[in-house]
């Protein structure tokens, strides 16, 4: 028998997971959310999603082609950046500004660090932060959802010529006999008017004439799909929402009516979208489970602090960007405990692990857990 | 699914679930005929190589000792077939370097029955005598490590062993040799366990079987001797449960302290294959001349578990089992930790549990995969059974920060199970980098 054999280093088999598979699944899970967004805001939202994503893809293509960064278009990571960025922008955001956001997201958020895996900050949020600084008026201009005729007419500000200031949305709304107040986001209404939107309206996002993003329930549902298939780590959203809810609850309990209830805190603004899709960005979040809890907790607390005690109505973006920056520090203090080096081992070192004469097999009815066998007063055999 | 398992309470933390591929689990063990020439390496075990006690041209009988143990951490070798010693010379080994081997030309039509050896009454032996008898059989750990069994069964001064843990996990995909041994040789296994318990002074023995082998557990339960000091425990299937520390955690919920042996918890772990072979060899007073090897892989015409005479060249085994002509990779052991061989002239040794053949098309899927930079998904951290951080270790290895890896990131605890490489979506060769790092550190320590 003469076989031309090749030599490889073990392991000789490979698991099914791949970067493309993870990223493609994140894109699939984002599609229902995008559809809901379009359902809320009509063709303006659809155009915004298309333009922003296309500009992200083009920028990625250019940077990959010129060798500035690693990766390729087929890994879908730029698609995710584009979709997420579009979901965080107001639906009537001028399209040319959306293109600027997309390009800056990839250029400043990803390419200068070296591409996929190397980025320090979430690219979508870097893009949003860039346009928030560049076009503060346009990014604060929301329109109410479920306007009649949203599938036939663009919001006029969308179609602004490049480098031109957008049309006045307030005047357009007035012409359609809408109260301009309805176009403020619930967080801004609370911050500047003291009006707390009912939690149920926020959770479903289905009540009309409210400037809100896609339904938090839908986002949580899509996130749950990803978490079940392990395409995102469930610890981070749980930690973010938990710590934000807890700190809001504590502040609510102490100061009472001055601050809104924790439900408003959880479901308003972009907290759910940020917790499920932004904070869980793999490259910018810690690798270790313990680090994920710390990181998520930090985001939640920072969000509440920024929302309550700063001049900004919304704080999720900056909270996540700050937490991204602390990720290397968090990883430093939150390394996993190696097998056989845990504190429990040190504590139990003196104990003897001899098998008790009344050893109870795991498969017998009276046995509960393996650890029970080592308790002094263990259940007796029947 | 891992999300659920987090709450369910698993055998041991982390680990992975590669597809089982145990296609040969239901085929009984068959005998392999003698190859025309058998190559017996003098170093099939951890420790000093054996010293040959035969000369070229000498006739040997199957089962006759042909090399003696050189010191305590060494074992004798026995002639695997009746024939004549043709040469004592350097031959390639699976690991690469050429080692000294005794080449035996097998007499045609010689029987596979072992006639050498005098029966002995092990039950009358004191523990020290049993250990010596184990050494005389030339037994080493048949699970793959090939550590001399008598050394494992020897208790250091002052150590007390309560529990003998018998490792029947066989967590590697494709391999079924331990499974078949448990099903077919349960009584030999019980005899071996009894002798091992006497040698170590253990009062109990627990056989840990993964729950994907219910018929093995059933067969062993039926063979349990009266007395009730041997238990058969099923543990949830997971790789790498066959590692002794993982098995102890799965069975008892405790962790063996890092850098210590299970002995520090009063336990000794032995493989089922080893103990079943001991149960047969010890009373007969014979030596180890053959072992059960799983020959499998996609495209193999007659896959199965074969009782292979030690020293049979891999090419002969593959010819007999019908390896496909397009075979491109031959692996000794399992696919997760096995060794791929360069030359098919290397023999089956005591530590070879499987011969696995992959064709070109089986590897195409892996080779076509792109390698991405680490996207820090954390899958490797979630799968490392030793609780290390392979992601950070991998980045340090790329920067050649080997000392930092060892000092701060516990590189020394890595036992190269390969879970991180298996799971990595970016297709980064993590465990391969760690192997290189460990080797460089070893060479640094020597220099």
Can you characterise this structure?
- The complex is a heterodimer of chains A (382) and B (447).
- Chain A folds into 2 domains: 19-141 and 143-183, no CATH class; 185-334, no CATH class.
- Chain A is built from 16 helices and no strands.
- Chain A has helices at 19-41, 43-65, 77-88, 95-109, 123-134, 136-139, 169-175, 186-193, 199-204, 216-228, 235-255, 262-267, 271-278, 289-309, 316-333, 343-348.
- The model of chain A is unreliable at 345-354 and 364-382 (pLDDT under 50).
- With 447 residues, chain B is α/β, with parallel strands linked by helices.
- In chain B, 30% of the residues lie in helices and 19% in strands.
- In chain B, a hairpin with a 6-residue loop joins β15 (327-332) and β16 (339-340).
- In chain B, α12 (390-398) packs across α15.
- At the A-B interface, α1 and α16 of A face β11, α7, α9, β15 and β16 of B.
Count helical runs of chain B: 15
Number of helices of chain A: 16
Estimated helix fraction of chain B: 25-40%
Which outline of chain B best applies?
globular
Structural class of chain B: alpha/beta
Mean pLDDT of chain B: 88
Q: What value does the Rg of chain B take, in angstroms?
A: 22 Å
Biggest sheet features of chain B: 6 strands, mixed
End-to-end Cα distance of chain B, whole Å, is 47 Å
**CATH homologous superfamily placement of the largest domain in chain B:** NADH-ubiquinone oxidoreductase 51kDa subunit
The rounded distance between the terminal residues' Cα atoms of chain A is: 61 Å
Query: Quick one: overall form of chain A?
Result: globular
Overall helicity of chain A: 40-55%
Mean pLDDT of chain A: 82
Structural class of chain A: mainly alpha
Strand fraction of chain B equals 15-25%
Do you know the CATH architecture of the largest domain in chain B?
Answer: 3-Layer(aba) Sandwich
Write the layout of secondary structure elements.
The complex is a heterodimer of chains A (382) and B (447).
Chain A: H1 19-41, H2 43-65, H3 77-88, H4 95-109, H5 123-134, H6 136-139, H7 169-175, H8 186-193, H9 199-204, H10 216-228, H11 235-255, H12 262-267, H13 271-278, H14 289-309, H15 316-333, H16 343-348
Helix pairs in contact in A: 1-2, 1-3, 1-10, 2-3, 2-4, 3-4, 3-5, 4-5, 5-15, 10-13, 11-13, 11-14, 14-15
Chain B: H1 2-8, E1 30-31, E2 37-41, E3 51-52, E4 59-60, E5 65-68, E6 77-78, E7 83-92, E8 98-106, H2 127-136, H3 149-153, E9 163-168, H4 177-184, H5 186-200, E10 204-210, H6 214-223, E11 230-235, H7 244-252, E12 267-271, H8 272-284, E13 290-296, E14 304-309, H9 314-321, E15 327-332, E16 339-340, E17 354-359, H10 360-367, H11 379-383, H12 390-398, H13 402-408, H14 419-423, H15 430-446
Parallel strand pairs in B: 1-14, 9-10, 9-12, 10-11, 13-17
Antiparallel strand pairs in B: 2-8, 3-5, 4-7, 5-6, 7-8, 13-14, 15-16, 15-17
Helix pairs in contact in B: 2-5, 4-6, 5-6, 5-8, 12-15, 13-15
């Amino acid at each position: 028998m003469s076989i031309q054999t090749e030599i490889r280093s073990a392991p000789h088999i490979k698991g099914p997971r791949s970067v493309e598979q993870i990223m493609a699944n994140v894109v699939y899970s984002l599609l229902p959310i995008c559809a809901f967004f379009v359902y809320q805001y009509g063709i303006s939202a659809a155009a915004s999603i298309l333009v922003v994503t296309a500009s992200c893809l083009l920028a990625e293509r250019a940077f990959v082609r010129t060798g500035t960064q690693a990766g390729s278009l087929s890994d879908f990571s730029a698609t995710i950046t584009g979709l997420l960025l579009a979901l965080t922008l107001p639906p009537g955001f001028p399209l040319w500004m959306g293109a600027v956001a997309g390009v800056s997201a990839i250029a400043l958020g990803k390419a200068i660090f070296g591409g996929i895996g190397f980025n320090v900050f979430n690219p979508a949020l870097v893009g949003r932060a860039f346009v928030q600084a560049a076009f503060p008026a346009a990014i604060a201009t929301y329109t109410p959802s479920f306007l009649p005729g949203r599938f036939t007419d663009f919001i006029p500000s969308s179609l602004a010529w490049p480098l031109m200031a957008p049309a006045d949305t307030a005047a357009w709304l007035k012409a359609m006999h809408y109260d301009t107040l309805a176009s403020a986001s619930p967080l801004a209404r609370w911050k500047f008017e003291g009006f707390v939107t009912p939690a149920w309206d926020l959770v479903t996002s289905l009540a009309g004439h409210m400037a809100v993003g896609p339904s938090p329930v839908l986002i949580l549902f899509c996130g749950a799909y990803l978490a079940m298939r392990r395409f995102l780590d469930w610890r981070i959203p749980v930690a973010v929402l938990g710590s934000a809810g807890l700190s809001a609850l504590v502040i609510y309990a102490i100061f009472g009516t001055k601050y809104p209830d924790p439900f408003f805190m959880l479901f308003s603004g972009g907290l759910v979208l940020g917790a499920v899709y932004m904070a869980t960005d793999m490259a910018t979040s810690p690798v270790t489970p313990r680090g994920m809890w710390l990181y998520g907790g930090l985001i939640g607390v920072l969000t509440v602090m920024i929302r309550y005690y700063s001049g900004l109505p919304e704080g999720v973006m900056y909270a996540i960007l700050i937490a991204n920056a602390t990720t290397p520090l968090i990883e430093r203090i939150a390394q996993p405990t190696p097998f056989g080096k845990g504190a429990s081992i040190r504590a139990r070192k003196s104990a003897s692990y001899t098998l008790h004469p009344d050893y109870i097999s795991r498969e017998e009815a009276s046995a509960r857990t393996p650890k029970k066998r080592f308790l002094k007063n263990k259940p007796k055999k029947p | 699914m891992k999300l659920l398992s987090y709450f369910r309470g698993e055998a041991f933390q982390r680990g992975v679930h590669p597809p089982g591929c145990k296609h040969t689990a239901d085929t009984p063990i068959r005998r392999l005929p003698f190859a025309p020439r058998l190559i017996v390496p003098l170093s099939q075990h951890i420790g000093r190589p054996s010293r040959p006690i035969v000369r070229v041209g000498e006739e040997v009988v199957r089962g006759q000792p042909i090399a003696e143990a050189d010191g305590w951490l060494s074992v004798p070798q026995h002639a695997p077939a009746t024939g004549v010693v043709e040469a004592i010379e350097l031959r390639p080994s699976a690991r690469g370097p050429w080692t000294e081997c005794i080449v035996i030309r097998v007499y045609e039509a010689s029987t596979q029955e072992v006639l050498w050896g005098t029966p002995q009454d092990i039950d009358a032996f004191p523990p020290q005598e049993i250990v010596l008898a184990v050494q005389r059989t030339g037994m080493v750990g048949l699970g793959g490590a090939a550590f001399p069994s008598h050394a494992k069964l020897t208790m250091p001064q002052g150590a007390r062993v309560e529990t003998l843990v018998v490792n029947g996990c066989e967590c590697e995909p494709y391999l079924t040799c331990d499974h078949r041994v448990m099903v077919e040789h349960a009584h030999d296994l019980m005899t071996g366990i009894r002798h091992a318990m006497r040698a170590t002074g253990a009062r109990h023995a627990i056989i840990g079987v993964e729950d994907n082998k219910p018929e093995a557990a059933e067969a062993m339960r039926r063979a349990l001797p009266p007395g009730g000091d041997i238990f058969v425990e099923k543990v949830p299937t997971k790789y790498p449960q066959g590692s002794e520390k993982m098995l102890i955690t799965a069975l008892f919920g405790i962790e063996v302290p890092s850098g210590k042996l299970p002995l520090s918890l009063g336990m000794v772990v032995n493989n089922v294959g080893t103990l079943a072979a001991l149960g047969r060899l010890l009373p007969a007073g014979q030596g180890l001349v053959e072992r059960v090897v799983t020959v499998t892989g996609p495209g193999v015409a007659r896959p199965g578990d074969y009782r292979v005479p030690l020293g049979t060249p891999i090419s002969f085994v593959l010819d007999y089992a019908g390896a496909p002509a397009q075979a491109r990779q031959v692996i000794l052991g399992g696919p997760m930790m096995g060794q791929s061989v360069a030359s098919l002239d290397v023999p089956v040794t005591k530590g070879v549990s499987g011969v696995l053949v992959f064709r070109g098309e089986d590897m195409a899927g892996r080779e076509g995969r792109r390698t991405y930079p680490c996207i820090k998904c954390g899958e490797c951290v979630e799968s490392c059974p030793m609780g290390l951080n392979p992601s950070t270790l991998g980045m340090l290895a790329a920067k050649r920060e080997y000392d930092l890896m060892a000092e701060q990131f516990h590189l020394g605890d890595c036992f190269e199970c390969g879970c991180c490489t298996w799971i990595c979506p970016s297709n980064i060769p993590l465990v391969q980098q760690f192997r290189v790092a460990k080797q460089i550190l070893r060479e640094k320590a020597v220099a």
